[in-house]
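Recall from the previous lesson that a structure prediction takes nothing but the amino acid sequence as input. Here we apply that procedure to Glycogen operon protein from Microbacterium pseudoresistens. The sequence below is the only information supplied.
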Amino acid sequence: MSDSSAFCPPGGAALDDLGVRLHDGVGTLRVWSQNASAMQLVVFDATDLDWEVDRASLERRPGGVWEVTTDLLQPGTRYALQVSGPHGPGNTFNEETLLLDPYARGLAQGVGYEEWRSVVIEDGFDWGDSRKPATPLDRTVIYEGHLKGLTKRHPDMPPALHGTYAGLAHPAMIEHLHSLGVTSVELLPVHAFVPEPRLLERGLTNYWGYNTLNFFTPHTAYATEEARQAGPEAVLAEFKGMVRLLHEAGLEVILDVVYNHTSEEGLGGPRTSLRGIDNARYYRQQPDGAYIDTTGCGNTLNTATDAGARFVLDSLRYWAGEMRVDGFRFDLAAALGRDANHEFSREHPLLTAIRDDPALRGVKLIAEPWDVGMGGWQTGNFPDGWHEWNDRYRDRVRNFWLSDIDYARRASAPVGIGGFATRLAGSSNTYSDERGPLASINFVTAHDGFTLHDLVSYDVKHNEANGEQNRDGADMNRSFNHGVEGPTDDPGILAARRKAMRNLLGTLLLSAGVPMLTAGDETGRTQRGNNNAYAQDSALTWLDWELEDWQRDLRAHVAALIRLRGENPALRPSRYAVQGEQTPRASDMDWYDQHGETMEQQQWTDPGHRTLQYVAATTAGEVPNRILLIVHGTESPIDVTLPTAIEGATRFIALWSSVDEAPSSEERAFAPGDVLPIPGTSMHLFRVV
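The prediction returns the following tokens.
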């Protein structure tokens, strides 16, 4: 980690203070454009965004920055830019187009789809005594959810707060988060975004929000009606108020951020900001001006330029500093790490700058470590200090509990337990010793894909409601419907699905690494088989708070598992253990078969051997703690003999079992050598004493 005196952001001092800065009764606006030949500030009436009231010219400064200082820029001023420049490949200047300031802290929308104006904001907020929780990574449990969907139907808060920033911070929602034991709320995009025109034409919208209009402004539609009517300053204050209340409750706020592309889409798409300011420098292009699209969204932000990289870094600084956000999950993060040749580089200056920037010290950095371009899959290949969504973990865990079981019903299990065990123990085959198991953000589901309930209830996707003839969404889901596609009244199938959900949740919350739970999975929320519900802003995607008994039981399992994870540090190693060495903050791991004997090499890959006993123990100098986890990965029951070779072990205290419909409070004790009847496809956790 660099100190503040040594750190130099991309572009250096020449790119400092972009956007509007208020001082001495005036405002200074600075905008970067290498290729522009002229730039105008256009000021509009506060209530009629079509009524121009004044304008001023910006002058070119060193480094491609255009600047004006004027008393036209006051708190609340509505303004836009008009930019002139040369024509030719890569350039798309149009001096008549009204453009947003990329660094605008506030936005106002007029009548038309592209009728947006930037708004001057005077920063400031009473944070009181609230502080960032700074939850250690080994104790972090992430809860990924949609800002609106989390509270839209919550019965215990005023309707005016449904689906809003204020709603997320309501005591009823905080109580739910506390009851689960999660530490960090990861919100789908809340940067100002717009739906794509093609969705509007079909009567749909962009619900998830991965179509950013501006990287410095919270999405207005998520504010209460009162705040929206009061204006951008009130929207900003509501967002900050949400963060303050969540922090006071000990909860972190992580934002899913979409810096890889913008809502301007491909050439010919909406022209709202960067395309009109300096298209040739802000977007990745071929020499003839054709876009290089590694995101699948029409354009890719060019972070190989200082201005593009600095744009991202400055936005992060703003949200982490002024807005006090605790972390970021970077959508399609491989796109940010592509160099001037459009190839991914692990030591890309932007990736290392984000990690080393003193203004971002202590901020959690989570990469979605892929994009859709050539060489875009980079799981395990981000720099030290970064954490990654571990899709290898997701796929292996789904295979073990679902597609392998499906296959075994027709033949026999296709693989042994070795790959699953590697994921359970922290994915040491994916992350370096220096990064350790906490580099892995473990997940079984996410916003994108089947919900947990649908993962065990559908073999194929059912996305007809999206209007794309079911062509959208992933075809490979590694799911298993357990005998019937979708809803059923068969009690045996329903019981098997519930146990499969408990096995998946148990694996997630007892694995080494940082677990991420998708909101609603704790109660078995369904999207009726839609595995790409990005365009569905309806009850299909909102959390349902009216629960059946089995859903309450499932939620109790999640709360119990998170509590047990916190109580047993052996489940939360920060480093990988090294055979024969004492490694601080690691967990010593031993592996036994169903007979209580040490696992032999051939057993790891034997498809006929899918039962193991996993012992994890804190290393010397740490708080003493040992656990035993039994994993049985076939549908046939089996007898398991508890190990006798664990040094000093006298008892095994039962803590949790996926067999139970509701978590049991009975802590039964067993002795080394006891034989336990283990039902098919199940997990069982013990404390070793």
